[in-house]
Amino acid sequence: MTRECTAAAGGNRGVAGAHVARQLGIQAHICVPEATSAFKVARIRALGATVTVTGAMYADAYDACLRRAATSGALFVHAYDQPEVVAGQGTVGRELITQADIDTVLVAVGGGGLAAGVRLGGGPGGRGVAGRPESAGVSCESRGKARASCSRQ
Length: 153
Known about the structure:
Structural class: alpha/beta
CATH architecture of the largest domain: 3-Layer(aba) Sandwich
Number of helices: 5
Number of strands: 8
Number of domains: 2
Radius of gyration: 16 Å
Shape: globular
């Protein structure tokens, strides 16, 4: 069994991954793009994870993460395109729908895994609405420092 996991993240997911790895007693290696805030990088490191800051975009961090998994044998944990990840994120939707009198949950979107999990975990009566800031450069095509082009869905 591998005692290391690796994940690409833009910030918050890296903090969560480092936290879970510490709880499980395994080493985490988190790859983040250069745009990740210094505060979030420091939080990830404070939780005991190794951080690789690389490239201008999330895709660069993702590629570095895949290389790390291939060379080290670390367990690769995808941000959203992995059934176990979406199922785990579904617990958020399940908890919200069972603990509060709500019918709609607004979810911030990066890759979409949390939104998918919340929607699936919320059950047939729940509704999930996904959104992202127009300036979210990691999930949008950047056009200079202050502008971004995002699809409306």
